[in-house]
Amino acid sequence: MTPNEPAGSAGAASVDDAVGAFADAAGTPTPAGDSRTPILRARRLVKTFGRVVGLDGVSLELYPGEVLAIIGDNGAGKSTLIKCLTGAEVPDEGEIWLEGQPVHFKRPQDARAAGIETVYQNLAVSPALDVAANLFLGREERKKGLLGSVFRVVDQKGMRQRARQELAALGISTLQDVTVPVENLSGGQRQAVAVARAAAFGSKVVVLDEPTAALGVRESNQVLELVKNLRDKGIPVILISHNMPHVFEVADRIHIQRLGKRAATITPQSHSMTDAVAIMTGARRG
Amino acid sequence: MSQQTTEPPTSALDLAEEFLDRTTPLSRIRNTLHRYPALSPAIVLVVSVVVFGLLNERFLNPANLSLITQQVAVVGTLAIAQTLVILTAGIDLSVGAVMVLSSMVIAQSSVQAGLPAVIALALGLAVGLAAGALNGFLVTRLNLPPFIVTLGTLNIFVALTLLYSSGATVRGAEMPELLTWTGSTFDILGVNFTVGVVLMLLLYVAIAFILAKTAWGRHVYAVGDDRESARLAGIRVNRVLMSVYLAAGAILAVGAWIQIGRTNAASPNAGIDLNLDSITAVVIGGTSLFGGRGTVWGTLLGALIVGVFRNGLSLAGLDVLWQTFAVGVLIIVAVSVDQWIRKVRA
Q1: Which residues in B lie closer than 8 A to residue A244 (C-beta atoms)?
Q2: Which of A169, A235, B162, B222 is 20 to 30 A off residue B337, Cα-Cα?
Q3: What residue numbers bound the domain in which B179 lies?
Q4: Span A40-281: which CATH code?
Q5: Which of A16-20, A127-131, A187-191, A224-228 comes out lowest in average pLDDT?
Q6: How far apart are CA B225 and CA B326, in angstroms?
């Protein structure tokens, strides 16, 4: 606790877990009904790259139905933290639990199979394929009967149908035609395709890496709406972003990384953007 | 960290977007060509057939049309394999050499080793698959660029062919009938077709179906389109690439069989330059060398365009060098058009 924060208030920032203390450190703000257990929890993750310490014992909790933003300066360990959670890197030390079960991801496919879907900064979409084909890329559905089982023909019609349903369910109205090649879409629409793919297949956690970084104002707003829609559907979201207004608009809680550690976890209600930046840069302790 | 406080006025943004969305007749043409990559080669083929037909009445003669298809059969088959590789953003310089090596193995194992024709063909297929496996292994495991890999294997396969065959041609008359069967002809509505031409067309139908209708086909496009995206989408990129080179090898073995029928011989010196002709057919057919875009039907049209140009110009009495000149111009025009088409709201 910092001296300038009223201890015990709902908005109090938590210092990193004391050694041995298990996750729900006193004062960590949780969404309403905070007796719930985290859907995703990481404890004391350490990751070094040679002599460079990427993560220095970071813990993180993601609760059902919340948007958790991760902010931090360049080199603070945001990306490394996310890579460890999504299987792109294997942490040297520490533990990760998904729905209370310990998990050990060796590659991104492991995390995806477990229900953690990631939308990467560079947008993993195939420009020449259409919207529906991109949504089902890598998990195509085959036709029923001999055509599907012997000739392995994909069920194009069915997939397009389902793609429309999934997009409608996510409240994505900007993609009317699922047969358009993705390269004909705007940046925001492409982002929507990528997010829809992450959210569409019964995923438990969606991780968005800088989803608004390359977008204009209007497109950013569309993506932020989409993030809120995901939360309203009950899908917890981890959002990595540099953009404070965006973070403060959609996040329920904000995890601040600094120098490989969790500096604080705050809420948009308890702290201002200036506070967050101060904690991020070390001008103020969390 | 960016403390964004000023936002550009939204109205200006809307105006800009409307401006971008504005369609001119030219951009509409471009969008259409973009959506149907086989359309531009189809137009070129129809126009060139009409022009050459008007220039010389012998051009549209059934016998001449039949000749064109026969001349196209081998290159057309190799170009299927080439299309698959180019769709993955690769290139295969060894297609001609693999085809020739396979044809020599088929001929020699039958004539000199006295193996049954079916076994000889199976050995030819095995050679094609092994060559494809080698290319695929070097591209996926050693992570070498396909251009370099196949430039190397091109030389290796040429050398192996000459070592194995001692540079000698095997004449069709010495071979069992099955091996030269691809050169036998039959009649449809007065036009002569060879079995080889039909075999090529069947391959086109099969590969077009697989590319358009199966998950594997989509993965081939996705890998060529954006390899990293495909990987992140959970596609096993190396497995797809390996299967593409294996499939190409198998298709090349069929090409070897068609070549034996077409030339009624197996010659170690025939067709090594076909690698460039196959790339020409693919490129003129509208498949992008950058991968992820194109169809085998475009390639068939591309192969036919080259055949029609060569045949039509030679009927017009032009020097064979002018045919080569024309093909060169075609390639450059085709790639320029492809670049222009790719600029659609990119």
Answers
A1: 1-4
A2: B222
A3: 38-337
A4: 3.40.50.300
A5: A16-20
A6: 30
What's B302's domain CATH number? Answer: 1.10.3470
Q: Which two tokens stand for residue B36?
A: 């149907």
Phi-psi region of A259 (alpha: psi -120 to 50; beta: other; left: phi over 0): left
Asked if ipTM goes beyond 0.85, one says no
Report the gap between the CA of A83 and the closest CA in chain B (Å): 13
Q: Give pLDDT tens digits for B42-90.
A: 999 999 999 999 988 899 988 999 999 999 999 999 999 999 999 999 9
Mean pLDDT of A118-122: 79
Q: Of the candidates A238, A275, A245, which has an alpha carbon nearest to the alpha carbon of residue A69?
A: A238
B290 compared with A176, residue with greater pLDDT: B290
Locate the domains of chain A by residue range: 40-281
Contact of B13 with chain A, judged by CB distance below 8 Å, is answered with: yes
Model confidence over B280-290: pLDDT tens digits?
Answer: 999 999 898 88
Between A181 and B129, whose confidence is greater? B129
Q: Considering CB atoms only, which of B221, B226, B232 is closest to A108?
A: B232
Mark yes or no for CB contact A156/B213 under 8 Å.
yes
Do the chains contact at A139 and B234, CB–CB below 8 Å? Answer: yes
Contacts of B203 (CB under 8 A, 6+ apart): B77, B80, B251, B254
Q: A interface mutation test: which of B218, B338, B342 has the most A CBs within 10 A?
A: B218
- The dihedrals phi and psi of A148, each to the nearest 5 degrees, come to -80, -45
Structural domain count of chain B: 1
Cβ–Cβ below 8 Å for B4 and A139: no
